Amino acid sequence: MKQNAALIIGLLVLGASAAFVTAQDPGRRGGPPSGPASGTSFDSAPLAKDEAEKKMLAVLDDMNSRSRGMLSVPRDDGRFLRMLVEATGAKNVVEVGTSHGYSATWIGLALQTTGGKLTTFEIDPERAKLARANFKRAGLEGVITLVEGDAHTEVPKLKETIDLLFLDADKEGYLDYLEKLLPLVRLGGLVVAHNMSARQADPRYVKAITTNPQLETLFVNLRDSGIGVTMKKR
Ligand SMILES: C[S@@+](CC[C@H](N)C(=O)[O-])C[C@H]1O[C@@H](n2cnc3c(N)ncnc32)[C@H](O)[C@@H]1O
Predict the structure, then answer these.
(1) Choice from 100, 123, 154 to test ligand 1 binding pocket (greatest atom count within 8 A of CB)
(2) Which of 18, 61, 181, 200 has its CA 20 to 30 A from that of 74?
(3) Hey, what CATH topology would domain 2-232 get?
(4) From ligand 1's centre to the CA of 41, what distance in Å?
(5) Taking CB atoms and a 6 Å cutoff, what residues make up the pocket around ligand 1?
(6) pLDDT band at 41 (very low <50, low <70, confident <90, very high)
(7) Phi-psi map region of 139: left, alpha, beta (phi>0 left; psi -120 to 50 alpha)
(8) Best mutation site among 66, 73, 93, 98 for ligand 1 pocket (most ligand atoms within 8 Å of CB)
(9) Contacts of 100 (CB under 8 A, 6+ apart)
(10) How confident is the model at residue 222 (pLDDT cuts 50, 70, 90)?
(11) How far is the CA of 38 from the centre of ligand 1 (A)?
(12) Is 142 within 8 Å of 172 (Cβ atoms)?
């Protein structure tokens, strides 16, 4: 248990460091590493350990280059999600807000290692269609299930225990998603919320995750998109 807590704290520190780098180089969304030219920060880029990962990273690069209007997470937020899923060994991941499937594909990359699965929700049929095509070319059809429709009415149909929940849809809906899905999140499981900067976050959601003694919440990357990482205490 202590090991898991140390692991998550380590990941949050990493996330905060990545956030610092992104804040130094806000225009970067997947381009080559710019290096520590300013002398104030380090940079890192994803490196494939084998051919399978190389192929997946190429698909992710291509998706990122076509992400205009898709509102997808920045590359390093995708990498952070992959780390959280893979390092915690998550087997059942739920995402609300698929768009064309960029963050879901990062999560899928991790799930290939953990042997887990992702259920992701998207209300827009065009985006859902694009996402399905992207999952196919990434070889993730067997790993990711896309549920098309309004997640507010669809998520109550979920019954299985959730290891990691990622919220990235309508910001004013986060509280409703939390209330509906937190009972399913396992003890020690994570709720990760995107767009938690002061400008974007719904104060009702922020209050819910910061005033509940059963939860431990940290915010990372606040100078960029802002990510809330909440652990359901054991
Ligand atoms: C910020 S984008 C998601 C980006 C995606 N997570 C990524 O990084 O690739 C938000 C998505 O949530 C979808 N959305 C908004 N309200 C929704 C709802 N009530 N149910 C399901 N999806 C919703 C939008 O259509 C949009 O595609």
Answers:
(1) 123
(2) 181
(3) Rossmann fold (3.40.50)
(4) 32
(5) 71-73, 97-99, 102-103, 121-124, 127, 150-152, 168-170, 173
(6) confident
(7) left
(8) 98
(9) 63, 66, 67, 70, 72, 127, 130, 131, 134
(10) confident
(11) 35
(12) no
> Nearest-5° angle of CA 63, CA 198, CA 110?
35
How far apart are alpha carbons 33 and 43 in whole angstroms?
6
Give residue 71 CA to ligand 1 midpoint distance, Å. 8
pLDDT one-digit tens code per residue, 187-220: 999 999 999 999 999 999 999 999 999 999 999 9
Any idea where the domains of the chain sit in the sequence?
Answer: 2-232
Amino acid at 53: E
